[in-house]
Amino acid sequence: MMSARVAQGSQDQRKLQALNIDGTSSGLPLSGARLRWTLWIHNRAVVRPAINLAAAVLAGILVQIATERFFLPRNLLGLFVQMAVVAIIACPMALVMITACIDVSVGGVVVLSGVVGGLISQAGAPLWLAFSLATLTGLAVGYINSLLVIRLEITSMIATIGTMYVCQGMANILTNGLPVAGVAKGYSSLGTGRFWGVPYQVPITLAAVVVFVLIQRYTVLGRHAVATGSNLEGAFLNGVNVNKTLTLCFLLSGLMAGFGGVLYSSRIGNPTPVMDQDLLFQVIVSCVVGGIALTGGEGTVFGAFTGAVLIVVLNNSLNLLGVSTFWQYVSLGLLLVVAVGLDKLRLGDRFKLRSSALRLRPDGQSGNGTSETVIESEK
Amino acid sequence: MNSELVLEAKGLAKRYGAVVALAHGDFGLRAAEVHAMVGDNGAGKSTLLKLMAGAVRPTSGELLVGGVPVSFSSPRDAQRQGIATVFQNLGMIDHLDATANLFLGREEYLPVPLKWLGILDKRKMRAQAVEAVGRLKINVRSVDALLGGMSGGQRQAVAVARAAAFGSRAVIMDEPTAALGVRETAAVLDMIRHVKAQGIAVVLVSHRLDEVFAVTDRITVLRRGRTVATNNTADVSREDVVGMMTGAFVPSI
Ligand SMILES: Nc1ncnc2c1ncn2[C@@H]1O[C@H](COP(=O)(O)OP(=O)(O)OP(=O)(O)O)[C@@H](O)[C@H]1O
Ligand SMILES: [Mg+2]
């Protein structure tokens, strides 16, 4: 009976059922645009990015009215350049956070990879080699992170704080704490070059976002990341290779952080062994504002990207309005708290309550009566 | 027929530090039979099942699939041998929909160049999920619904359907009806008969003796980590089984 209903129902009807909304019993005969609207406002993966993008556009319009400078092509491209490194690292970070882990080593990796790239270029190697080896440095750190988390079972937060400091220290040791001088002439081409007036960073960022959105939505890695983050033991028992899933996520995170380091140092022009603390926090705030829960299983890569967009637009807006950097920190902090707070208010829904209630049950059994209680009463 | 065991545990034991969860587990599963495993709380049933399902590794003892000794290092290994399991404390994923849960660890991929990239054939999986849900008469609103939004019974039904769909040799169920209402319980028992009719063996752990006597061919009793005896269901009474579970009745082997 069920299958017949599903098979015959329209695409919308199907999705409505998926959200456990009963179109008929609500008294409103939902159809067409109205139905689609109901669907959308109940889909968290849609709502969060939509709110972020709407807020970014709204901020842009207000600033445009006030200063007439927001929607200048130069400003918009500048936004992309500011966002590039954060967005590129936030995409794989989203995957890592969906598995209920976190990779805070990315800040250190960016520094180390930049320095490695600079030193290799300084030694006279061609740029492509310097950039590739720098990116692979990130991949190596990602692999080490995965070993620490999987083999030694160190909490990812702690493990990656460790590797973050090791990376930062290594970068300083390699350079005696000084900026790397004498890199090849074209070193800054990647970060500052333009193609028909469009910075290379724009297509690079868009490509990274598209690839990671596809990975999350259409590949087994995306699905297994959710399973691993939502219920680690359950995923394992169901035959998910959780170690492989975690390893791949950390590898991707390290790889993109390595590449982010190349971009970052290339933009600045000379690699410096100084860690940009803001970078890490902007990445994490992007993810969280984008709808990713630290507890795992929730959120999307695209959401994280919209988080990055919102952050950079807000910072840019405040810049254009002439608000000091200090207030930009305040706004970033408020944004984070408001975004998460709103979520808690909005998600007074059954799923949230149910799943937390389930977790509280000592026996982990769901539903009406546990086996134990049934047996007790039978005996 | 007697010697044709699909799955056999010979003196399996599992120790967690000082705790002996299973001291000596013997179990033989014949093709196309429904085999009950009963025993008091803490008798070691779930432990024995987990060993047979590859979820934990035995401390000692031997496990054979189709007469061949095997050593499972994860449930995936067991799944590859056609042994699917419904674990006692649901291993379902709240944040994935019913289809994704049904196919977890057994995903269908698009044709080869795309398969190498791990790209899923979502349409095929969904169609098969709709088909399975209809065939097994599972009462869920939609295969696209997140598991987290379902009732305990619906979640359990999805778990059972999952095992029934993917166990080509044996389906192991650890108290599949524990959280279910009367109607849902009947549906699960129907599902068990259905699986058996397809020539697949079923291991059923349950504390509800009425359902054990209703659907099983043989009963194995565990007590304090040891297999007490295995009997044809037709040859024993409820009292015998309860006696074996509590130790009041020791069968002469
Ligand atoms: N991971 C573990 N660590 C320590 N002890 C364990 C572990 N798993 C099981 N045990 C112990 O092993 C014994 C057998 O447990 P098991 O879960 O197999 O019992 P059961 O027969 O399935 O009981 P129930 O009917 O309550 O499900 C229990 O005493 C339990 O405390
Ligand atoms: Mg048990």
Structure description:
The complex is a heterodimer of chains A (379) and B (253). By secondary structure, chain A is mostly helical. Chain A has 2 domains: 43-323, Orthogonal Bundle (ABC transporter involved in vitamin B12 uptake, BtuC); 328-379. Chain A has 18 helices and 2 strands. In chain A, strands 1-2 form a two-stranded antiparallel sheet. In chain A, helix 2 runs parallel beside helix 3 and helix 7 packs antiparallel against helix 13 (242-268). Chain A is globular. Chain B has 253 residues and is α/β, with parallel strands linked by helices. Chain B has a single domain (5-94, 147-246), classed as P-loop containing nucleotide triphosphate hydrolases (Rossmann fold, 3-Layer(aba) Sandwich). Chain B has 9 helices and 10 strands. In chain B, the strands form 2 sheets. Chain B has a 6-stranded mixed sheet, with helices on both faces. In chain B, helix 6 runs parallel beside helix 7. The model of chain B has no long low-confidence stretch (mean pLDDT 88). Chains A and B meet through helix 1, helix 2, helix 11, helix 12 and helix 17 of A and helix 2, helix 5 and helix 6 of B. The complex binds adenosine-5'-triphosphate and magnesium ion (MG). Magnesium ion (MG) binds next to helix 1 of chain B.
What is the correct CATH architecture of chain B? 3-Layer(aba) Sandwich
Give the name of the CATH architecture of the largest domain in chain A.
Orthogonal Bundle
CATH level 4 superfamily of chain B: P-loop containing nucleotide triphosphate hydrolases
- Indicate the CATH class of the largest domain in chain A: Mainly Alpha
Give the tally of β-strands of chain B. Answer: 10
Q: What count of helical segments of chain B does DSSP give?
A: 9
**How many distinct beta strands of chain A?**
2
Helix content of chain A: over 70%
End-to-end distance of chain B: 21 Å
Strand order of the largest sheet of chain B: 6-7-8-3-9-10
The CATH topology of the largest domain in chain A is ABC transporter involved in vitamin B12 uptake, BtuC
Q: Which class best fits the helix and strand makeup of chain B?
A: alpha/beta
Largest sheet: number of strands, sense, barrel closure of chain A? 2 strands, antiparallel
Order of H and E elements of chain A: HHHHHHHHHEEHHHHHHHHH
Q: How many distinct domains of chain A?
A: 2
Q: In percent terms, what proportion of residues of chain A is strand?
A: under 5%
| Stretches with pLDDT under 50, minimum 5 residues of chain B | none
> Rg of chain B, please?
18 Å
